């Protein structure tokens, strides 16, 4: 899939970040994602991956804070 995964390490304790369900959190850099829906589908199909942070199909718009203090909606 072309991502570069990194195990998220804890800041205030030794070792990796672990969820309430004892899962590890892995951050993966995919660069610019051309088809996020397909990427999410492929990731979820991998054994051991519980969830992604892509949130496809969950929102109708997003609000962005801009450097000049304005807010844009897409």
Structural write-up:
The chain is an alpha+beta fold. The chain has one domain (1-74): ACT domain (Alpha-Beta Plaits, 2-Layer Sandwich), CATH 3.30.70. It has one helix spanning 36-44; strands at residues 4-7, 26-29, 63-65, 71-73. The protein has a two-stranded antiparallel sheet. Strand 3 and strand 4 (71-73) form a beta hairpin. The mean pLDDT is 93. One of its GO terms (molecular function) is ribose-5-phosphate isomerase activity.
Strand residues, percent: 15-25%
Oligomer: single chain
Q: Which architecture does the CATH hierarchy give at level 2?
A: 2-Layer Sandwich
Specify the overall morphology. Answer: extended
Q: What is the rounded Rg? A: 16 Å
- The level of helicity is 10-25%
The main sheet orders its strands as 1-2
End-to-end separation: 27 Å
State the domain count. 1
- The average pLDDT value, as a whole number, equals 93
Which structural category do the helix and sheet elements fall into?
A: alpha+beta
The CATH superfamily is ACT domain
CATH class: Alpha Beta
Largest sheet: 2 strands, antiparallel
Q: Give the number of DSSP strands.
A: 4
Outline the low-pLDDT stretches. Answer: none
Question: Any chance you could write out the topology, listing elements then pairs?
Answer:
Blueprint: E1 4-7, E2 26-29, H1 36-44, E3 63-65, E4 71-73
Antiparallel strand pairs: 1-2, 3-4
């Amino acid at each position: 899939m072309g991502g570069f995964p990194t195990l998220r390490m804890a800041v205030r304790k030794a070792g990796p970040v672990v969820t309430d369900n004892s899962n590890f959190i892995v951050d993966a850099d995919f660069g610019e994602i051309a088809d996020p829906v397909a990427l999410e589908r492929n990731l979820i199909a991998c054994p051991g991956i519980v969830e992604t942070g892509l949130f496809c199909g969950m929102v109708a718009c997003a609000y962005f804070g801009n450097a000049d203090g304005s807010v844009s909606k897409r």
